[in-house]
Amino acid sequence: MRRGLIYGLKKFWSEVFSGDLLILFCSIVLAVTSISSVGFLGDRLKSSMLMQASSMLGADLVLRSTSEIDSEFLSKAETNNLNWAETTTFLSMVITADDNLLTSVKAVTDSYPLRGELKIVNFNGIQIEHSGSPPSGKIWIEKKISESLGLNRSDTLSIGNKNFIVDGIIEDYPDRNSSFVGFYPIAIANIVDVEEMGVIQTGSRVVYRKLFSGTQDNLNRFEDSLEAIPANIRLQKAIEAGDNLGEDIANSTTFFNLASLFTIIISVIAAMMAVRRYANRNLLHTSLMKVFGASKSFILGHQIMQLTLMIVSASIFGLILGYALQHLLLSTLQGIINVNLPPPTFRPVIIGFITAVFVVFATAAPYIKILSETEPIRILRNDFVIKLSSNFIIYLVAFFTMFGFLGVLFQDIKLILYIVMTLICVTSALYLIGKLLIYVLSLIKFSNGTGWKLGLKNIVQRGNDSILQVIIFGLSLLFLVVLAETRTDLVDSWTDTLDEETPNYFLFNIQEYNLKAISDYLEDEANISPDFTPLIRGRLLSARRPGSEGVNFDNLMEREANLTWQYDIPQSNTLADGQWWANADEVAEVSVDREIAVSMNLEIGDELNFSAGGKTFSASVSSFREIEWQSFSPNFFFILSPAAGRDLPNSYITSIKVEDSEKLMNKFITRFPTISAVNLEAIIDQAKSSISSASLAVQYIFLLTLIAGILALIASIYSNRDQRTKETAIMHAIGASRAMIFKSASSEFFILGMLSAITAIIFSTVLSSVIFYQFFDLIYSPNLIILGLSFLLAIGFIFIAGVISIRKSIYASPMITLRDS
Amino acid sequence: MKNLILEVKNITKEVNSPEGPLTIVKDINLTVERGKPISLVGPSGSGKTTLLAIMAGLDLPTFGTVNLLGSEITSLDEDKRAQIRGQDVGFVFQSFHLMPRLTALDNVMLPLEISGDPYSMDKAQEALKKVGLSKRAKHFATQLSGGEKQRVAIARSIVNKPKILFADEPTGNLDKKSSDSISDLLFSLNEIIQTTLVLVTHDLFLAEKCKEVYELSEGQIL
Ligand SMILES: Nc1ncnc2c1ncn2[C@@H]1O[C@H](COP(=O)(O)OP(=O)(O)OP(=O)(O)O)[C@@H](O)[C@H]1O
Ligand SMILES: [Mg+2]
Fold first, then answer.
1. Do residues A458 and A560 both lie within one domain?
2. What CA–CA distance (Å, rounded) separates A671 from A673?
3. How many helices (H) and strands (E) would you count in chain B?
4. Are A679 and A545 part of one and the same domain?
5. Same domain, A464 and A519
6. Which strand ranges, in their side-by-side order, compose the sheet holding B20-33?
7. How far, in Å, from the CA of B9 to the mean position of ligand 1?
8. Residue A245 pLDDT class (50, 70, 90 cuts)
9. For residue A820, which residues of chain B lie inside 8 Å, CB to CB?
10. Does A582 fall in a domain?
């Protein structure tokens, strides 16, 4: 064995660049590049999501309640090595000598925030250092407060009984969602001053928070030690918030995974063909070595060393490429992710190596066995044909190990099962089709050989070889076509969310008496007929579950709610649960955004109490809605039935799409000065650029699979090139013309390409619809352009590559060819 | 008796063919003495190659024993037989069997690399010199003529200084002129490196040059 290893080491470089091993090498590189780039990327995306989620909470874990939280939690946190901070948030008037403003006051400890950044600037906009909270007696305020109260540096303001000196302007703070956002500006004070303010009394709207951060292990241990948390305390975790990442990113991640899975499978196919040819060509070498005294273990050592070197060098190469590609993808995705990413972990490196080992094992194991057991007598019999049938079991084992490994790697058994099933179906179909082809062709009598008839005859004579080629072509094409379709539809579905009709202006504050004038104006000037949606400013007061009193509707008291009433469910909404109005004009009902409903612990049938326009009223929850927020049309958490909302005082809101917006809107605003118009173009542009960068990233990954596919086709075409070459030479020698040989070869490749392309296209529609439905929530409709184009390109490629592969032997003198072989 | 380097006793080889069991060689007995080349002649299909393979330990007989260089190879396993081949046996084939992508020198080195000989390069060059091809050492196998290829193959077969050299129709693929020079070379080797030639051929003229000629017909020695 040792000698074999040394021999393998010596011969490695000269053999790698000899052709067959080069294809194997490239297959491994592609598989590793693909899995590691997606791995590196996914890894960093995941950490970045977590970071984003943590900074949204200002911590990794938060306990939150509307009543004071026991401080035993803090000591528990300390025993578990966690950092902690506290915040107390409440609404209060901020008072200056001649004005006041309702403000969300956030009183914090020095350690706040644990995650994310609290950015404080001075009045000149220059960032200032701080230690997490202002010192006692000082306060930081948002610009809105300083502007509306006319405050300057070192001015004083008072909250309750306590005076504060303004010490800085809050430019950014992490836990935005935790304040009474959107309604009130915020001020940050030191938590030690809360007592003195004296504004918190029973019935005040206060939210208490305990923030924790630390390693995941410590966090878990801490959570375990909490046992039962009182019902009024809610636990929020960054890890869970992180799961809730943007759908675009989630979908592109799914696509990346799918693409890298396909790349690996196709690479394995390519590797299989390469190894087959390598083994066939090496049979002479190994039998010779056997004759000259090499033992079984010598051959084994030789092969193992070569493959090991191959794995190591191809993995390193693939990892470098993978890291570079990941870098490219990230810089493409920068607009979407928009945070400083943590460095990648070591995981993708290990996964890359393991992938390489599996690719090689799954493809080379049977041949290593065959080669090491070669009988030296083959040399004397000139018998250098490998029969795989007796090693079928090894192939089966390798195949299932491979998919087991992929299942573990992608942690998606469902996907792997679908793929395995498809593989089995398609392979059997291709096998049967190949058999049928050969049978049909063999029935035809080829009397006098014109070129193309000779080609058909060759297909028959090659028998199983032809079938194998049809299978390999078909499978590689199948995965390519499915991925091409997925890619196109995914990108289309993204672009569709922002079509030509996407509104670019929001108009607010429209009063009843303005409606007609605005309608007419927009109709005349821009040919737009806007839909006006009623907007009711209201507040959610309480909730009640008929029949079971005392249910804790946490989170409820904070809801300042914009309401509307509608007869029909808006276009950008879908019903997630319950029923749309049973009797719109008679029954007071409300439909709630599903996410809000979940966060408030609501169920269908609960009674909600609102106040609006000085009236209080109640409505029963009749449905939950899923809202497509990207639609840029007015969307509401709460929609009232006409019976509940019709008589409430309201203004109107509308969204419109205006061409040549600036000119028209300037005129519009002078014409209707009381109406606020919000330009959405900047946001739309941002969304568009996110979409185009996500699309570009998807293209890069697809490109990798495409290369693997081409490699597999080439490997398959080359797998019996030697035999073709020899045949060509013999035909030359017995007097066939070049034109005839050319016709023969091209008709052969044409038929093989056509058959495999047809089968691949048919099955791709099946696999695509499963994948679309199961993994992207998209409805699949065959993309005829892609399918047609793939069909033509596939046939063209196989045909051209096939002819190229034997062009040398067609045009070279038969003497040279015979001598070479 | 000391000079006996090959002793074949009652060799019979049967194989399974589509038409049932087939006896390819039957009840062969022969001996080879050191320094006394022998030849096997006979019509095509008479079993010459089969017998050669068994004598050289490349294949096992169905019945009978072969004693090669003092070892009863018919009772050894494949790896042990390989070891004996590597040390003391040389082979030359009708269709040369050079590795096309290796140079002449690399081809000649092959047997020594398997045994891990540290001087493989020097020894290979020396062997090439003996067959008169030192100038072609860096040529690839595909760049050589048939006669040259066979010379390289001969160099390869003698590079381990074998005690016995099996050659299966070494001139079968060559024209008259190359054929003559190859056979001269083979017989001269018998003296130069003290190896004993076991030659399979259907060239009677060549066969006559051997001390002993066995004629096979339908698997039996006449
Ligand atoms: N493994 C096998 N299975 C079936 N038949 C075999 C096998 N090996 C050899 N034969 C048959 O045995 C007979 C002898 O073969 P062998 O190769 O020994 O002949 P040969 O004398 O070397 O012929 P040639 O001069 O043409 O090389 C042939 O008819 C051959 O077809
Ligand atoms: Mg023979």
1. no
2. 6
3. 7, 10
4. yes
5. no
6. B20-33, B4-17, B63-68, B71-72
7. 20
8. very low
9. 100, 142
10. yes
Mutate to test the pocket of ligand 1, among B13, B22, B24 (most ligand atoms within 8 A of CB): B24
Query: Which residue, of A155, A187, A213, is where some domain finishes?
Result: A213
Exposed (0-12), middle (13-18) or buried (19+): which is A92, by Cβ within 10 Å? buried
Cβ-defined contact of A294 to B53 (cutoff 8 Å): no
Domain count of the fold of chain A: 3
CB of A712 closer than 8 Å to CB of A24: no
The confidence score (pLDDT) of residue A690 equals 65
- Statement to judge: residues A517 and A483 lie in one domain: no
Query: What is the domain extent for residue A114?
Result: 83-213
> Does the beta carbon of B201 sit less than 6 angstroms from any atom of ligand 1?
no
Q: Which atom of ligand 1 is nearest to the CA of A381?
A: 17
For residue A290, the chain B residues in CB contact (below 8 A) are 82
CB-neighbour burial class of residue A212 (10 A; exposed 0-12, middle 13-18, buried 19+): buried
Ligand 1 pocket residue status of B70, Cβ below 6 Å = no
% pLDDT > 70, chain A: 87
- B89, B101, B114: residue with CB nearest A289: B114
Question: Does some domain include residue A287?
Answer: no
The pLDDT tens digits for A409-434 are 887 888 888 888 888 888 898 889 88
Q: Is residue A139 part of a domain?
A: yes
> Closest approach of chain B CAs to the CA of A271, in angstroms?
22
Cβ distance B142 to A289 less than 8 Å, yes or no, reads no
How close is the Cα of A722 to the center of ligand 1, in Å? Answer: 26
Cβ pair B114, A376 in contact under 8 A: no
Domains defined along chain B, listed by start: 4-221 (3.40.50.300)
pLDDT at B91: 92
Whether A650 and A728 map to the same domain: the answer is no
Report the pLDDT averaged over residues A59-86. 87
Under DSSP, the state recorded for B158 is H
Q: Which of A213, A242, A262 is the last residue of a domain?
A: A213
A654 and A752 belong to one structural domain: no
| CA A159 to chain CA centroid, nearest Å | 47
Question: What residues of chain A lie within 8 A of the CB of B87, using their CB?
Answer: 293
Kindly report the protein residue whose alpha carbon is nearest to atom 24 of ligand 1.
Answer: B44
Determine if ligand 1 sits within 6 Å of the CB of residue B130. Answer: no
How far is Cα B108 from Cα A192, in angstroms, rounded to an integer?
91
Does the beta carbon of A290 lie under 8 angstroms from any beta carbon of chain B? yes
Question: Which run of H or E residues covers position A460?
Answer: helix A451-462
Q: Does any ligand 1 atom lie closer than 6 A to the CB of residue B90?
A: no
